[in-house]
């Protein structure tokens, strides 16, 4: 299985400051069709996961533009340009390229300092 | 509006069985593959099983292979997960998620304990 490794696992951030989460895969996530199936999810306390970003850098409808995704191959990043209180939660990357074994990162807990 | 509503969770003894359901609405259920994902208390997300739109293709995580069975009834817009030979480590919130991972249910808690 493809292993997804996130860092850091805990990220204390000051309100209004930027935040960055790294996700690395053990194999390239470029699929045979040329797409890279790397998703980012946000899970607020007590809620279900919510997809924020799909195919590396595409924001889902309703996701604030302070969230952005980037990367290629095996290295990916989720950035929050200015952290707000509602951004507190755990963020997961997930690969959908090497199916049928979809795998998630361990999660990064974002909290306010 | 797309909605996925899981049910059927509860407390079960090790070695017991449980059947989870996921009721879908707001989209053409028969056109989409579906997944089950679980999350142990305080832990991360783990993909459990996949079923194609017509049920012709099914996959399982190694951790549940031979014990869990995924199925669907397109006439009833419902997805199921039959869980047998349950173990302590199967304790988790179980989510159903639509193909593409944009839509998830609210989850149902399964607790395996004596």
Report Rg of chain A: 13 Å
Major beta-sheet overview of chain A: 7 strands, mixed
Main beta-sheet strand count, sense and barrel state of chain B: 6 strands, mixed
What would the average pLDDT of chain B be, to the nearest integer? 98
Question: Which percent range fits the helix content of chain A?
Answer: under 10%
Estimate the global geometry of chain B from the Cα principal axes.
Answer: globular
Q: What's the count of strands of chain A? A: 11
Measured by DSSP, the beta-strand proportion of chain B falls in: over 45%
From N to C, what is the helix and strand string of chain B?
EEEEEEEEEE
Report the oligomer. Answer: heterodimer
Termini of chain B, distance in Å? 40 Å
The number of helical runs of chain B is 0
Report on the structure:
The complex is a heterodimer of chains A (113) and B (114). Chain A has 113 residues and is mostly beta strands. Chain A is 0% helix and 48% strand. Chain A has strands spanning 4-7, 10-13, 19-25, 38-43, 50-54, 58-59, 67-72, 75-80, 89-95, 103-104, 108-112. Chain A is globular and about 40 Å long. Chain B is mainly β and 114 residues long. In chain B, 0% of the residues lie in helices and 49% in strands. Chain B has a six-stranded mixed beta sheet, with no helix packed on it. A four-stranded antiparallel beta sheet of chain B has the order 1-3-8-7, with no helix packed on it. The radius of gyration of chain B is 13 Å and the shape is globular. Chain A binds chain B through residues 39, 41, 48-51, 54, 60, 92, 94, 96, 99-107, and chain B through 35, 37, 44-47, 50, 59, 61, 95, 100-102, 104-107.
């Amino acid at each position: 299985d493809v292993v997804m490794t996130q860092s850091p696992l805990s990220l204390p951030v000051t309100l209004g400051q930027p935040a960055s989460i790294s996700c690395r895969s053990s194999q390239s996530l470029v699929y045979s069709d040329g797409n890279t199936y790397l998703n980012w999810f946000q899970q607020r306390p007590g809620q279900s996961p919510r997809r924020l970003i799909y195919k590396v850098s595409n924001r889902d409808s309703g996701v604030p533009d302070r969230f952005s995704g980037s990367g290629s191959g095996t290295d990916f990043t989720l950035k929050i340009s200015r952290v707000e209180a509602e951004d507190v939660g755990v963020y997961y990357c997930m690969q959908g390229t090497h199916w049928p074994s979809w795998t998630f990162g361990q999660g990064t807990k974002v909290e306010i300092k | 509006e797309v909605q996925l509503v899981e049910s059927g969770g509860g407390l079960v003894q090790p070695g017991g069985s449980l059947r989870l359901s996921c009721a879908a609405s707001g989209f053409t259920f028969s056109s989409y593959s579906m997944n089950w994902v679980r999350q142990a208390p305080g832990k991360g997300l783990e993909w459990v099983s996949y079923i194609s739109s017509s049920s012709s293709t099914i996959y399982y995580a190694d951790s549940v292979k031979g014990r869990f069975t995924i199925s669907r009834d397109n006439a009833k817009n419902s997805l199921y997960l039959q869980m047998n030979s349950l173990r302590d480590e199967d304790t988790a919130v179980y989510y159903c998620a639509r193909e593409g991972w944009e839509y998830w249910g609210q989850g149902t808690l399964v607790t395996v304990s004596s």
